[in-house]
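look at this one:
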Amino acid sequence: MAFSLDRVVLAQLDMPDVAAVDARLNELLQPGGERVEPAAEYEARDASGTIRVVVDAHRKLVDVGIQPSWEARIPAAQLAGVLFQTYVTAIQRAMVVELANTRQPAVAHAAEGLPLLDESLPQEEWMAAVRARVDAVDALLADIHRLDASRTPPAGGEVGSPRGFFVLHLRGGSPAGLTGSVDVLPSAGADRLRPDVLEVFASAGLAAPAAPASRSTRRPPEDDEDVFEFRYDV
């Protein structure tokens, strides 16, 4: 039987987008160019600065801030999604910062010590540098997944908020999404939405014990001229 190159399949190396992963890690560790140090609480804001979410070092929800003028920047149909994504960013920041300051510097600071990916290097050296960076990123992400898997899972299914504005979706005991009641959200002020979010997370076992909805030591982000105008497309 004659050998044909038509049936030869070359092996492919499926490598992640290292630059994108590095950029995301840098965004979590150094938002606005200022490095986040280990702390009792970690904060994230949405792109418009309308939503602020605070979690503790154990990735429990501590507080939520919603500007009174949220409807001018975020359509009601997207409010729950923006809230949840901001919560996810706060969780990721807490995890990455804690990992970056563990007692395992070889993993925690691997990305900082990697050689620059200079394409003018000989191919073997350049590929070795790429593999080193990919391995370091993979190790960091693996540690993040292990930390997340070690968390005590809350109840599964769906949890509705007391006032009926939101439903928190859980998958395998972990928060998977947040949906909102578009019919009633536009008529709800930020002062009613905030406790509803806090209470639905508390009901799912995802809120810090010292974060009651009536907590008065925190305030939602204020409307001021320093917040740049950003609207989510409908």
